[in-house]
Every structure is written in structure tokens, then in C-alpha cells.
Amino acid sequence: MVGLIKQVWRVSGIYLVWTILHFCASQLYTKFCTPLNLIGFISSPFLVTTPHCQAFKWCINNGSDALSSMWIVFGTWIISHLS
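Given the sequence above, the corresponding C-alpha cells read:
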């Protein structure tokens, strides 16, 4: 039982980290790379190529992939333990 709790904590910790990274990167991307005003509209083609915007985009894309994969893993784990 203790091993199971450690395993669930480890998996949920990774899920929590990816959730936080994805959320923060999404918020920061809209603030710094595509501001919601006329200047933001004009400058966004230049801003999205900057290193920090590329890093935010990487976190958003890989975070959503990791979260999707984790739902599949979670569903598979639940199904395997039900039968």
C-alpha cells in the first residue's frame, strides 16, 4: 500500500508541475508576446520570434502534450486496476 501511495504521489506531482508550467506559460505568452491592444497586434509578428516567446510556446505545446498523455496513462491505470 505504501508503494502505491508513493507511485500515485510521483505521478500526480509530475501532473501538477506540467499543469503549473502550462498555465503560467499561457498567461505569460499572452501578456508578453501577443498583448491585447493595437501596439500588441502590430508588434506580435516580431515578438513571437523572440527567445522568451519561443520558450513559452515550447512549454505550452509540450505541456498540453504531456497533460493529454497523462490522462491516457491515468485511464489505462484505472482500467488495469479495475479488472
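The chain has one domain: 2-82. Try to locate this feature in the C-alpha cell string yourself.
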